[in-house]
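User: My instructor asked us to take a sequence, write out its structure as tokens, and then describe one feature of it. I'm not sure where to start. Here is the sequence I was given:
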Amino acid sequence: MLHNIRRIRPLLTQKAAQVLVQALVISRLDYCNSLLAGLPACAIGPLQLIQNAAARLVFNLPKFSHTTPLLRSLHWLPVAARIRFKTLVLAFHATNGSGPAYIQDMIKTYTPARPLRSASTNRLAAPSLRGSQRHSQNSRLFTVLAPKWWNDLPIDIRTAESLHIFRRQLKTHFFRLYLN
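Assistant: Let's start with the prediction itself. The structure tokens for your sequence are:
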């Protein structure tokens, strides 16, 4: 797809190239990318190379141009951050009761046994794993990764009132983490 867009790139404005790349390339990178949660960097690396090539194509830059400023100006999160973003949006839906029932069943809110200050922090309970999964810190299960990533978020993001506010704050948070 990138090759075909590159062939017609001299005929396009930067804005048109951006729209075309987002529609044909970035949308494919985002499709079901929460299934890639927990994969090692060597597995996500090829997808990041595609995103970098897409950013260079939008700005019509040579192959070895640095991409961090390009991603920042396009407001594109790196692939690893996009995967985490999508997983946390699913967790937000599950915690607020707006997600599918099977995902809501996977997520349990943390409720302490006695009154504690942590009861109002909107944390998720980490599942108790048995056997070999307990020792594996790279478990790819949604029920393991979503609570871990959710609890790592700042409290103002976890307690967002709406999906729109949550998504905006989460994207800003990830921009600070990944692109600064």
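For the description part of your assignment, you could build on this observation: The longest helix spans residues 41-59. Try explaining in your own words what that tells you about the chain.
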